[in-house]
Write a structure and sequence with these properties.
Elements lengths: L1 E4 L1 H9 L2 H11 L4 E4 L1 H17 L5 H11 L1 E2 L16 H10 L2 E3 L3 H5 L8 E2 L1 H10 L1
Parallel strand pairs: 1-2, 1-4, 2-3, 4-5
Length: 134
C-alpha cells in the first residue's frame, strides 16, 4: 500500500507520540510505502526545524534522514485547480492521486477533500485500524 503522510501526522509522531507515532512505526516495519514529493519533504523539514527549536533533544533529523533515504520520492506534480480549502494542502492530494496512494492526515481540509479523484484521506486512527486488518 502506498501512503502520503501529512505533515501534522509526521510531526505529531516525531514530537508527541500516540497514534501518529504508531503510523511512523508501521512504516518503519515495512507495512506500507511512504510516498512524498520534494515540496512535501521541504514542509516536513521546515515544520520539524521550527518545533525542534522549541523541543531540544528530540532527534527529528534522524527521522527525516530515514524518510529521505527510504521514502519513495516522486516529482512535484502540478494542478491548476484548487482541491482543498487550504492551497498548501493540495500537494498531499495531488501526490496521492499521481502515486495511487492514500493520505493519512488529521487536517480537516484534507479530510473534507477525501474522494477527490479517488483519493482517500484517513485519520491516523482509521489508518492504524486498517493496517491491523491487513
Amino acid at each position: 500500500m502506498r501512503v502520503v503522510v501529512d505533515t501534522n501526522v509526521l510531526v505529531s509522531g516525531v514530537f508527541f507520540g500516540g497514534v501518529p507515532r504508531q503510523v511512523l512505526e508501521a512504516w518503519a516495519a515495512g507495512q506500507f510505502e511512504l510516498v512524498l514529493t520534494p515540496s512535501i519533504f521541504d514542509e516536513y523539514l521546515t515544520t520539524c526545524a521550527r518545533l525542534g527549536s522549541k523541543h531540544p533533544g528530540l532527534e527529528y533529523l534522524e527521522v527525516l534522514a530515514t524518510v529521505a533515504g527510504h521514502g519513495t520520492l516522486i516529482p512535484d506534480p502540478q494542478s491548476a485547480d484548487a482541491i482543498t480549502a487550504d492551497p498548501d494542502d493540495d500537494k498531499f492530494m495531488i501526490c496521492a492521486q499521481v502515486a495511487d496512494a492514500v493520505v493519512v492526515s488529521g487536517d480537516s481540509d484534507l479530510l473534507e477533500a477525501s474522494g477527490w479523484e479517488g483519493v482517500s484521506v484517513l485519520t491516523p486512527r482509521a489508518f492504524s485500524e486498517l493496517l491491523d486488518q491487513i
